[in-house]
Amino acid sequence: MKTLWVWGKETMSDLMGFKNAIFLVAAYSVFWLGTFVYVLTMSLRQRNLEKDLEALETLVKKDQ
Length: 64
Fold this sequence. Notes:
- It is built from 1 helix and no strands.
- The radius of gyration is 27 Å and the shape is rod-shaped.
- The chain has a domain at 31-64.
- The chain is mainly alpha-helical.
- It has one helix at 12-63.
- Helices cover 81% and strands 0% of the residues.
- The longest helix has 52 residues, at 12-63.
């Protein structure tokens, strides 16, 4: 029976598992950061489009 963790006596596979866990956390962090930036960008674009639409509607009403 193999002991998974003995203080001070890590096996190479235990260390590789920890290294892989760090990469997993890093990948999730990059994914969520990218998602947040994308949503923020879309929100800003929508706000600008709404302002442009209001300005266009004002111009159309003036011309009528």
